[in-house]
Design a protein that fits this description.
This protein has 204 residues and is of the alpha/beta class. The chain contains six helices and six strands; from the N terminus they run E-H-E-H-H-E-H-E-H-E-E-H. The protein has one domain: Rossmann fold (3-Layer(aba) Sandwich). Strands 1, 2, 3, 4, 5 and 6 form a six-stranded parallel beta sheet that branches. Helix 1 packs parallel to helix 6. It is globular and about 50 Å long.
Length: 204
């Protein structure tokens, strides 16, 4: 089992430049340290093997989400993976301790340039505003949210920039957890879900 689990999701990987380059860079690293899982190759029918995914997560020390930003969020299969794998009572809530103390890191790319993620840009908000659901997911599960690695304007990025981002991704994976920025992260307050947060019996 690898220390670092990279969950990669790109619905059209054959047309990708940024995500594919980062996936390939990670796949070249020691598999005893880094394991890359291509969700769209593993689950083309969207039937996720939850037990297998949870077993890998339980052994890993850092989870990496690698994906392009789709409608200010993650691609649909990754969202389904999150819905099913991060189960109540396993990942969070009463008895949900499986991910506690692990790190969560996002490596993402956007089609729009960085200038578009400003109050005066067409995306209206700084990019960090769109990361609150991911950051809160980490907090709810007792994970440490690490500063994301983001490549803006991926559609127009040249090969040199793509390769530079892939090298940085690889270097960060190899040097984790000895990142200078980790030492200055503020601890996140626990988000304890009470036992009666969900009604007993079948879901509505």
């Amino acid at each position: 089992m690898a220390d670092i689990l990279v969950i990669a999701a790109h619905p059209q990987l054959e047309h990708s430049r940024a995500t594919r380059a980062l996936m390939e860079a990670a796949a070249r690293l020691d598999p005893a340290r880094v394991q890359v899982r291509d969700l769209y190759a593993l689950y083309p029918d969207y039937f996720i093997d939850v037990a297998a995914e949870q077993a890998l997560l339980a052994q890993a020390k850092m989870l990496v989400w690698l994906h392009p930003v789709h409608w200010y969020s993650m691609p649909p299969l990754l969202k389904l993976w999150l819905d099913e794998v991060f189960a109540f009572g396993w990942a969070y809530g009463p008895g949900g301790q499986a991910l506690k103390g692990k790190d969560l890191w996002l490596a993402a790319s956007t089609g729009g340039p960085e200038a578009s993620y400003r109050p005066d840009g067409y995306n209206r908000y700084f990019f960090d505003a769109f990361l609150h659901p991911c950051e809160q997911t980490a907090a709810l599960c007792g994970m440490r949210w690490l500063p994301p690695l983001v490549l803006h304007g991926a559609h127009r990025a040249d090969d040199t920039l793509i390769e530079s981002q892939a090298q940085l991704f690889s270097q960060q994976l190899q040097s984790w957890p000895y990142w200078p920025e980790i030492d200055i992260l503020e601890p996140t307050a626990p988000c304890d879900v009470p036992a009666d947060a969900r009604p007993a019996g079948p879901a509505a």
